[in-house]
Amino acid sequence: MDLSTSIAQSHQIPKSPVKMLHILLLFSFLLSSSPAAAKDFCVADFKATQGLAGYQCKVPEEVVVDDFVYSGLNVAGNFSDISKSTINTSFVDQFPGLNGLGLSMARLDLSLGGVIPMHSHPGSSEVLLVTQGSIIAGFISSNNIVYTKTLKKGDIMVFPKGLLHFQVNSGPVPALLWSSFNSSNPGLQVLSNALFSNNLPSELIEKVTFLDELEVKRLKALFGGSG
Length: 227
What we know:
Elements: H1 3-10, H2 15-33, H3 35-38, E1 85-90, E2 104-110, E3 115-120, E4 126-132, E5 135-140, E6 146-151, E7 156-159, E8 165-169, E9 175-181, E10 189-190, H4 191-196, H5 202-209, H6 213-223
Antiparallel strand pairs: 1-2, 2-9, 3-8, 3-10, 4-7, 4-9, 5-6, 5-8
């Protein structure tokens, strides 16, 4: 073997990297040509039937810029006489452009002494940002360990998916909070409402909560429940 042949062979690209390059190019082509990759968004069609997978997509010809804009969080919602607070949500049910994007927001206003009662989001984790006032916030893990912290303006706290959590206004001024979720429909279940604002029989509530009859009746009356 002469010197030129030896040098040429030493500079040849090995076969395995070439095959790998071909595979990567093919994979890239398949991704770019797939229906999922070709669809930029799936604006919720509120007029269509909603299934277990969520809303169907609007036809592209009916999509408008307002589908991607929501102004409902520019004011506080209606305050509750019980909790002295309000939660104003921007979930997919109000904001069609969120459909399929895996994100949403909410505005929380707490007046003096206000509280966001114990609740959970079955479909999402949450990041909370305090922009006014100070609060005590916390959550309870599945093994009943409590994590609480006093948060001030600019502080954020994360609440893992599905865990019970709460916020209490601990300052001398109203508090304003903003929540971000990694789901377009995180869901919301308030513990006190689940127990006392429906027709769950009082006898069952007494058994599962160990509360006495008078206290259950008082709470049922407070939250508008029956039974």
